[in-house]
Amino acid sequence: MTTEAISSRLPTGAIDTSGPRGPRPKSVTIGRIGVYAFLILSALFFLLPLWVMVVTSLKTMPEIREGHLFNWPALLTFDPWLKAWDTACTGRDCNGLKPGFWNSVKITALSVPVSIVIAMINGYALSFWRYKGSELLFGILIFGAFVPYQVVIYPLIIGMRELGLFATLPGIVIVHTIFGMPILTLLYRNFFASLPIELFKAGRVDGAGFWGIFFRIMLPMSVPITIVAVILQTTGIWNDFLFGTVFAGRENMPMTVQLNNIVTTTTGIREYNVNMAATILTAAVPLVVYFISGKWFVRGIAAGAVKG
Amino acid sequence: MKSVVSVVALVAAALLGSTAVRAADVEVIHWWTSGGEQAAVSVFAREFDALGGDKWVDTAIAGGENARSATLQRILGGDPPGAAQFNPGRQYEELIAGGMLLDLTDLANKEGWANFIRPASISEACLVDGHWWCVPVNIHSWNWAWASVPAFEKAGVELPTSFDDFLEKAPKLKEAGIIPFAIGGESWQINGAFGVIQTGLLGLDKREKIIKDKDLELAKAEMPAVFEKFRQFKQFSDEGSANRNWNDTTNLVVTDQAALQIMGDWARGEFGVAGEKAGVDYACLALPLDKPTVSTGGDIFLFPKQSDAAVEAAQLKMASMMVNPQVQALFNNAKGSMPIRDDVDMSLADDCMKRGLEIIKDPANIAVDAGRWQSNDTTGQMNDLVAQFWADDSMTAAAAAEQYVTILQNAD
Amino acid sequence: MTQIAEPGERAAPGFAGTAAGRKPRTRRKFNIQSILGTTPMIATAIGVFVICIIFSIIWSFTSSKLFPNFNFVGLSQYERLWRTDRWIISVQNVFVYGVLSMIVGMVFGYLLAVFMDQRIRQEDLFRSIFLYPFAMSLVVTGLVWQWMFDPNLGIQSAVRQLGWTSFEFAPLVKQETALYGLVLGGLWNGVGVTMAIMLAGLRGVDAEIWKAAKVDGIPTWKTYLFIVLPMMKGAIATAFILSATGVVRVFDIVIAMTQGGPGVSTQMPAIYVIQHITDRANVGQGMAAATMMLVPVMVIISLQYLFQWNAKRKAART
Questions:
Q1: To the nearest whole number, what is the mean pLDDT of chain C?
Q2: A162: nearest CA partner in chain B
Q3: Could you tell me the maximum CA-CA distance found in chain B, to the nearest angstrom?
Q4: Which residues of C are less than 8 Å from A187 in CB distance?
Q5: Is the separation of the CB atoms in C108 and C191 below 8 Å?
Q6: How many separate domains does chain C show?
Q7: CB pairs below 8 Å between B and C: how many?
Q8: In this predicted model, what pLDDT tens digit does every residue of A215-246 receive, in sequence order?
Q9: Residue A1 — pLDDT band, cuts 50, 70, 90?
Q10: Which runs of E-coded beta strand occur in A179-280?
C-alpha cells in the first residue's frame, strides 16, 4: 500500500467529502429541471406535516373543528404556544412543559457524553486491540439492538434496585448508555476500521500503549464521526419516554412525560392547537441540532460510518 | 393558612406526647391529566394537604396503561409510590397475593366502610378474603346512549325505545343525511359499545353466567346473536369512524350530524361545555332502554407498602379522606362521576347524573364491570376479537362467537 | 495505487466484521488495558443482553402473569401464541412493513442522494428539509400523519374542498390499506437519514472512478447504478442496520397512528410483546412472543458469523 493510498483513505481533508460528485451542469436542460422538480416535490412531501403542525398550533379550536387543515389561520393566535409552555396542566401542576425541559436538558447533557465516550473506547478496542471473544461481544451488542426495550426492562429494574440506582439520575444515564451502545459502537468500530493501520503502527513505534494511542491519535481524529454520534444520541435521548418514566425518578421526569400528559387523553378533551404547539416545542432541541449540524452529519458519516 | 394548620398539628402532637409520627410526603401516581380530571384530583390533593403536615406529591402519567405500568415497575424497583390509581377489578390481584399492599382493614372496620359503600359490588373490588386492600373513589357507568333530539326530529322519528327500535329507525335517519350510529374506531370504544349491547341482549343474569361463571354452553347458544346484532349497528356507522376520538364522535351528536352514540357517563361533559340542555338538545338514555342499569366501572386507589412508618400513617389518612362524604361530593361533582356512597350531597349534579343515582339505588340494576371477573389478559383477547369482528365484514358472527367461546374456555 | 485495485480494502462491509482486508490489524494478543477499557461493553453484552435474553427464554416456558415466576408450563405459551390470529397477523405485518419500508426507503434514499449529488443550489436547505423529520419522535410522526390521513380533516377533505369531490385518500380507514399508511409515515421519518448515509457513501467514492467511467463513455445513470452503488456496501449496510432495528421494534408509530387497527389489521409483534408484559399481565405469553421475535435475528447474525469464520478459514489456507 502506498502513502497515496493511505492519504486517500484519511477521513478528514484528504478526500473531499463535502462536494458533490455528479457531472457539472452546463445550462438549463430538461435534465436539470427534472432534478429540481424531483427534489422540490420531495421537499414538499417532507415539509407538509410541519406546515400542518405550525398552522394548527396558531389556530383557535373552533377553527380547527371546521377542517381546512392546510389553511393559514383566519384568526391568528399565539395562546396555544404560551399555554403549552407555561400553563397547560400535566396532572395537578399547571406549569406547561417548562419544568420538564430542564430535566431533559440534564438527562441529555449527562447521558450523551458518557454513552459516546464508552462507545468510542469500544470501537477503538474492537478495531485495534481485539482480544479473544471481543467479536462475539460485539455480535451480542448488535443482537441487543433488535431486542424490544420492554423485554429487557424487568431484569434491568431488578439490577438497578440491587445497585441502589433505581429512580436516580445515574440510573437513567446508565440505561441510556446501555441502549445507545450497540449503534454507537457500530459507528465507531466502522470509523476506526477505516483509519489506516499505519497510524496505529506509528503510535506503537513511539511506544504508546492502549490509552496513549487512544488519547493522542485516535481521539483527535474522531471528531467527524463524533458529531454524528452526538446528533443520533441527542435525538434518541431527548425523545425517550419509556426509560424516563421508569428509571429517572420523580424529580427527573423528562419533558416527553409532560408532553404525553398534555397530548394523550382517553376520556378527556383534546386541544389540538396546544398539542401541536407542545409537540413542536418538545422537538425544538433536536430540530435545532439538525438544522445547525446537518452539513457535518453527512460529512461525519462519510468519514467512517459508511466504510467497511 | 395551611402552615398554621400544620404547626398546630405538630404542636398538638408534641403536647399530647403521643406516638404521633412526623409529617410525610405521599407520592400519588394517577392518569388524570385532562381538564375536568385535573380539577377532580386537585380536590383530593387540597383536602389531603389541609389535614395537616403531610403532603400530596403529584405524579401524573397520561394513559392508564402507562400509569399502571409505571406503578408496577416502581414497586418492582423498590421505589413504590405512596398511592396509585387502578381500575377496580383483577389488575392488582398479584400485588395483594404478593403482600405488596398496605392492609386497610383496621381503618375500614373502624369507619365502617362496608356499611356505606354501595353498591356492594364496588366494595368487592377492594375487599378480598375479609381484608380491605384499596379504596374505591367513584363509579363510572358505560351503560348510556347519547342522542341528538334535533337529529331524530329532522328524520321525523321518535327517540328509540329499544335497540331493535333504533335499528328500525336508523334507515330513516340515514335518508335524512344523519349518521345513525356514531362510534370511534378505537378498540376501547368498540368494545365498550359491544359490552353494552351484550348486556342489553342477554340481560344481567345470563351475562353473569357467561362472563363470571364461564358457562360455555350458554355462550355458544347466545353469543352468535350478540355478534349478529353488533354487525347491524355497524351498518349504520359512518366511513370516517376509524381512529376517531370519543369526543370528536360525541361532537357529531352535539352538532346534530349524528343521532346516537353509546358512551360512558363522562360524555355528559361534552354537552355541558357546548351549552346543550338535557331533554331539549340532547337526551341521555340509560341502557338497556327497557330495564336501565348502571355498570360499575370507575377508579380505586391502592397503597403500596412502605418502609417508613410516617408515610404509612399518612397513607391511612389519605385513604380515610377519600371516602369522606364531603370530599366525595366535591370530587365526584368535579369528575362527573357517581359517588361510592349514598349520603353525599349531589344537588349540583345535572339531570343525567341524578337519573344514574336513582338507578344505582336498586342492587338489581347493577351490571358488575366485566373487569371484576376477567383478567386483563382475557379481556384483552376478547377486545382483539371484537375489534377484528367490527373491522372485518368477512368474519361471520358464528365464527366470532366460536372464538369467543374458546377464549372463555381458556380464561383464567 | 488507488482503491480500485484493492477491492479487499473496501469490500469489508457490515457489522460483524470482515474477511481478509482487516487481518493485519487484528491483535489477538491478550491486552489487559483493552479489556479494562471495554468493561462497560462486557457488562452490557453479558450482564444485560445475554442475561435478559436467557431470562426471557426461561420465562416464556412459565405461567408468569403480572410478575415473572418460575412455574414451568412447557410449550403451552407457544401453542397459544401460534393459535392467536392477532399474532399471526402481526408477523405478516412486520414482514410486509419491513420489506416495503426498507426497499422503498433504500431506493428513495438513494435517489434523493443521487439527485442531491448533481451540484444543485441550496444543497444545505434541501438536506435539512429531508433530515429534520428524524428529529421528531415516532409518536409525533404518527400523530401528524394520522391527521394528514384523516378523511374528514386531512388531505382527502382538502382536495375535495378544491372541487375534486370524489377524491379518496384515507388509507388508515380501511383494513386493506392501513399498513401502507404506516409505511408512508415511517418513510417520512427515516428516509432523510438513509439519504444522508447514501450521500456520504457517494461522496466517499473515489473521483478516479468517475473519470474512468467518463473516459469509457458510460452514461451517468449507469455509473450510479452499476459502478458506484456496488462500491457503497458500507453505506448500504449501515443504513440497513439502522432501518432494520427500527422495523423489528416498530411500536410507537403504530400506537400513535392506528393503535393496531382497524380491527387488528396493523398489529405488530412488538406491540403484542409489550402489551402482554405490561397491561395484559401475562409475562409468560409476552416473553414467548419476544423469543419468537429474536429467532430470525439470531439466525441472521449466526449466519454472518458462519460466513466470516468460513472466509477466515479459507484465508488461512491460502
A1: 84
A2: B77
A3: 78
A4: 238
A5: yes
A6: 1
A7: 88
A8: 998 988 888 889 889 988 998 899 888 888 88
A9: very low
A10: none
Q: Mutate which of B30, B73, B254 to test chain A, going by most A C-beta atoms within 10 A?
A: B73
User: Which long-range contacts (C-beta less than 8 Å, at least 24 apart) are formed by B38-44?
Assistant: B38/A89, B38/A91, B38/A92, B38/A94, B39/B334, B39/B335, B40/B331, B40/B332, B40/B334, B40/B335, B41/A91, B41/A92, B42/A92, B42/B334, B43/B327, B43/B330, B43/B331, B43/B334, B44/B318, B44/B321, B44/B322, B44/B327, B44/B331
- B-chain residues near C275 (CB < 8 A): 65, 380
Task: Say if B65 is an interface residue toward chain C (CB within 8 Å).
Answer: yes
Q: H or E element: which one contains B135? A: strand B134-140
pLDDT at B2: 44
Does C55 reside within a domain?
A: no
The shortest CB-CB distance from C146 to any of B243, B377, B403 is to B243
Q: Tell how strand B134-140 and strand B297-302 pair up.
A: antiparallel
Q: How confident is the model at residue C174 (pLDDT cuts 50, 70, 90)?
A: confident
CATH of the domain at C132: 1.10.3720.10
Among C79, C280, C290, smallest CA distance to B406 is for C79
Q: Does domain A79-305 have CATH number 3.40.30.10?
A: no
Cis peptide, bond prior to residue B119, ω within 30 of zero: yes
User: Which of A89, A166, A262 shows the shortest C-beta gap to B77?
Assistant: A166
Q: Which domains does chain B have, with CATH numbers?
A: 2-138+296-351 (3.40.190.10), 197-236+374-412 (no CATH)
Contact status, residue A112 vs residue A121, Cβ threshold 8 Å: no
Tell me whether B128 touches chain A (CB under 8 Å): no
pLDDT for B268-324, tens place per residue?
A: 878 877 888 888 899 999 988 888 999 988 999 999 999 999 999 999 999 999 999
pLDDT at residue B28 greater than cutoff 90: yes
> Among A290-304, B175-189, C39-53, C220-234, which is the least confidently predicted range?
A290-304
In terms of CA atoms, which chain A residue is nearest residue C236?
A306
Give the span between the Cα atoms of B295 and A292, in whole angstroms. 56
Query: Using CA atoms, how far apart are residues A97 and A259, in angstroms rounded to an integer?
Result: 7
User: Could you tell me the residue ranges of all domains in chain A?
Assistant: 18-77, 79-305
Q: Check if B391 contacts C (Cβ < 8 Å).
A: yes
CA-angle at B125, arms to B122 and B128, nearest 5°: 130
Q: 3-class DSSP state for residue C62? A: strand
Q: Give the domain range for residue C132.
A: 60-317
| pLDDT (0 to 100) of residue B177 | 92
Say whether pLDDT at B14 is over 50: no
Q: Select the residue from A4, A46, A115, A265 to test the C interface by mutation, using most C Cβ atoms within 10 A.
A: A46
